[in-house]
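This section describes the prediction task in plain terms. A model, or a person checking by hand, is given the sequence of a single protein chain and must write out its three-dimensional structure as a string of tokens. No templates, partner chains or ligands are provided. The sample shown here is typical of the held-out split.
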Amino acid sequence: MSVVALTLLGLAVADAVRTRGWQDSRRARILGWLAGLVTLLGMALLSGVTRGTDLALLGLAAALVVGWTLTAGESVVRRRGARLPLGVLAAGFAALLLGSGWASPAGGLLEEWLTWSGLPATEGVLDADRVLLLAGLLAVQVATGNVIVRLVLIGVGAIRDPGFPQPSDRLRGGRLLGPMERLVILGLGLAGQVTAASLVIAAKGLIRFPELQHSRQDDVSLEDSLEVYEVTEYFLIGSFVSWLVALTALATAQLV
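The expected answer:
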């Protein structure tokens, strides 16, 4: 699972750089995949994942980082649809998971640092492989999680074309609340507090309910207004995809 963890870190950094609000989308994509590749290869060197078949798996991971970064841009998705980037992501990770048994266990300087640090959690509980995996799973909950949610919303038509009122105008804070929510769910799940995680999910619906009820704009034309069902669709689909990202990460964490 070492290469899978490294790929998660590469994707997380690539998306964090790419979605920083660059004016030039082409430049954003290039900087994104460069940052992702530097992270992927740099962490591979630090963790000693550089032997034999590791190189082939790292090549596949690099291709996934670049492919995802180039196809997940909003302008590309609006032209070609969301299936392409989501398919690239799913196929890439499926291939990496199938070949994960050929990857060397993480070690190198990372393992030496864990031993040197003397952290109680690392003694007999967290080895270098699991530390890498947990770091990757936590990292993708931030920018990459938001990208996946937005891709699905664009794909199903829950986000309008630029220039029109957007459901996100009525449900503010989603790009900040989404990562926080996913991190809380994943953290509580890793701690064995599944009931508490479900309470977070239930609380979100209660908090957003007043905004859903007042989502209709009465001071504009019917053509340009946002109907209640549009905002509700945006909220429900976005929330379920966000929860699935967190729950998939939680399930993946149980593999190591």
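For orientation: Residues 220-225 have pLDDT under 50 and may be disordered.
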